[in-house]
UniProtKB/TrEMBL annotation:
Its cofactor is FMN. InterPro entries: Aldolase_TIM, Alpha-hydoxy_acid_DH_FMN, FMN-dep_DH, FMN_HAD, FMN_hydac_DH_AS. Belongs to the FMN-dependent alpha-hydroxy acid dehydrogenase family. Pfam families: FMN_dh. Keywords: Flavoprotein, FMN, Oxidoreductase. SUPFAM superfamilies: FMN-linked oxidoreductases (SSF51395). This is Alpha-hydroxy-acid oxidizing protein. Gene3D superfamilies: Aldolase class I. It comes from Svornostia abyssi. It comes from the Bacteria. Residues 1-350 form the FMN hydroxy acid dehydrogenase domain.
Length: 350
């Protein structure tokens, strides 16, 4: 937490108020935003001692790819708003750390360039548009660029009510920077919360996407209930991401540290379960693993590191984060990720 706070302080100094607010903000009164962080800490860790932790291996395999730690960079729009290194910087830093990187549909760098820079381990987050032809073209372009998974975001049928964005509803991108044309629309020089996404998306569309993606695994991002986890698996999802979109969509939805328990119990190991929202240190990662996650995604901490120090900042953050996961595993008596069990957490009474 401390490391991340330092990056956030620098990021806040460097960024325009509107840009900082866009990244930091949540929906409504930001009740869920605050609880996303706190809810992890309401699970106390139950460490075991006298286990040989002389060599701790924090690596995992997700969708066939070995990751140095169970950590993936979450999709976040418009990263060249934060630093000229933008998506290329974050993707390169993730690759150097042996982690996967998820590129947003609303990126400021084309997916082909990002895949080339990372050399593997890139996932493509998809917002399905009303214009299905444009979406199909984007998916084909992403797949032919070499993305290893399609992350279908299902929690943004309409824009959340984000009070902090009201002051700056349309953020101008820096001179010479435009949004990548993953939407098939002409290059745009501002970022808006919503534009042309299909609010009519249903579970039947997972089969369509699998088809368009030519078998590339489809992960459903934005699952908060056992019911939706079942529906996602029935629809052919290769995995689910427990997420409330960083508390940016509907204030009052369940924090992900609570939803994860229900979702992982329902999934019973049939597909990978990932989680994001408020994961801030190695202890949180162990909590997530204990509750049944295969890996976590982290969002804002990466944004702050990028804004503060560009690619080097993200590299440092991810290295320290992975090291902290290793330390937390050792201190819980777990020589590897497989050793983490439900018995490594207990719910706090408050
Ligand atoms: C500024 C910002 C932009 C985001 N853009 C996207 C996006 O384009 N697509 C998406 O699926 N999620 C997006 N998210 C949500 C993140 O992928 C992720 O779910 C969330 O930020 C994780 O929580 P954390 O920031 O607390 O780690 C965005 C989040 C932020 C903060
Ligand atoms: C362009 C936006 C829809 C990106 C996003 O998902 C977000 O701001 O949370």
């Amino acid at each position: 937490m401390e490391l991340i706070r330092r990056y956030e302080v620098v990021a806040r100094e460097r960024l325009d108020q509107g840009v900082y607010d866009y990244y930091a903000g949540g929906a409504g009164d930001e009740q869920t935003l605050a609880e996303n962080d706190r809810a992890w800490r309401r699970w106390w860790l139950r460490p075991r001692t006298m286990v040989d932790v002389g060599a701790v291996d924090p690596s995992v395999t997700v969708l066939g790819r070995r990751l140095a730690a169970p950590v993936i960079v979450a999709p976040m729009a418009a990263q060249r708003l934060l630093h000229p290194d933008g998506e290329l910087g974050t993707a390169r830093a993730a690759a150097a750390a042996g982690l996967a990187y998820t590129l947003s549909t609303r990126a400021t760098t084309d997916v082909a360039e990002v895949c080339a820079a990372a050399g593997g381990g890139v996932w493509f987050q998809l917002y399905v548009q009303i214009d299905r032809d444009a979406t199909e073209a984007a998916v084909r372009h992403a797949v032919s660029s070499g993305v290893e998974a399609l992350v279908l975001t299902v929690d943004l049928p309409v824009a959340g009510r984000r009070e902090r964005e009201r002051a700056n509803p349309e953020i101008a991108l820096p001179e010479g920077v435009t949004l990548a044309t993953h939407t098939g629309r002409p290059a745009e020089s501002t970022i808006k919360p919503l534009g042309g996404w299909d609010p009519g998306l249903t579970w039947d569309d997972v089969a369509w996407l699998r088809d368009v993606g030519d078998g590339t695994p489809v992960l459903v991002k934005g699952v908060l209930t056992a019911e939706d986890a079942e529906a996602a698996m029935a629809a052919g999802a290769a995995g689910v991401i427990v997420s409330n979109h960083g508390a940016r969509q509907l204030d009052g939805v369940v924090p992900t540290a609570i939803a994860l328990d229900e979702v992982a119990t329902a999934v019973e190991g049939r597909v990978p379960v990932l989680v994001d929202g408020g994961v801030r240190d190695g202890g949180d990662v162990v909590r997530a693993l204990a509750l049944g996650a295969d890996a976590v995604l982290i969002g804002r901490p990466v944004a702050w590191a990028l804004a503060a120090q560009g690619e080097g900042g993200v590299a440092e953050l991810l290295a320290q984060f992975a090291e902290d996961v290793e330390r937390a595993l050792a201190l819980c008596g777990c020589p590897d990720v497989a050793a983490v069990t439900r018995g490594h957490v207990q719910r706090a009474a408050w």
